[in-house]
Specification:
mainly alpha; Arc Repressor Mutant, subunit A
Length: 194
């Protein structure tokens, strides 16, 4: 059994000789990885991507850098690589969302608050803007905005330098703002440089 306060690196270290301990890492991070994949690809493919992420992580646990206590960037990196294999499906999903438009998404939901209606109105244009980004720019943006990784962690997840991740994030947000009339729903405040 692994204590709740045990770090990811310790779980991975111990799981090399006690494979059943890997379940603690799965329990800790599966929902977040699945949620990220579902936002990118939809529920069906997300089930496969999340499961495969943890299969790959389990197979590669002996190569994990134990100096990094937080395994999230590593897991999101694996998931992002798997998602890139599904990039055509992701692009189709963004095009479908863009075609759906605000009126379809908001019909029958008069009881929703104004903020939710505004979010629905931006959904189509946001999906179109995301679909127009390069895969590398989109990956960094969504790791920061949806997975809530810091810029350095997003770079680590994708195997790129932090400066490259920062440049890609800037470029992606510039394009999103231009497409949405200078608003950017992917910004939650200051990016944490972790």
């Amino acid at each position: 059994m692994v204590a709740v306060t045990t770090g990811d690196a310790e779980i991975l270290r111990r799981s090399r000789h006690e494979p059943e301990l890997f379940a603690a890492l799965f329990d800790r991070h599966y929902a977040a990885i699945h949620g990220y994949a579902a936002r990118r690809l939809g529920r069906g493919p997300a089930d496969d991507v999340a499961a495969e992420t943890f299969l790959i992580a389990f197979d590669r646990r002996d190569r994990y850098d134990l100096s990094r206590d937080d395994a999230r960037p590593w897991l999101y990196g694996i998931a992002s690589n798997l998602i890139s294999r599904h990039h055509r499906a992701e692009a189709r999903q963004y095009r479908a969302l863009a075609r759906a438009g605000a009126s379809e998404a908001a019909e029958g939901h008069d009881e929703r608050v104004a903020g939710q209606v505004d979010a629905q109105a931006a959904r189509g244009p946001l999906a179109a803007a995301l679909g127009g980004l390069s895969r590398g720019d989109r990956d960094v943006l969504l790791l920061v905005a949806w997975a809530q990784l810091g810029v350095r962690e997003a770079g680590e997840a994708l195997g790129i330098p932090a400066g490259t991740a920062r440049s890609r994030l800037y470029r992606a947000r510039t394009k999103i703002r231009a497409a949405l009339g200078e608003t950017d729903p992917t910004t939650l405040g200051e990016d944490i440089d972790r």
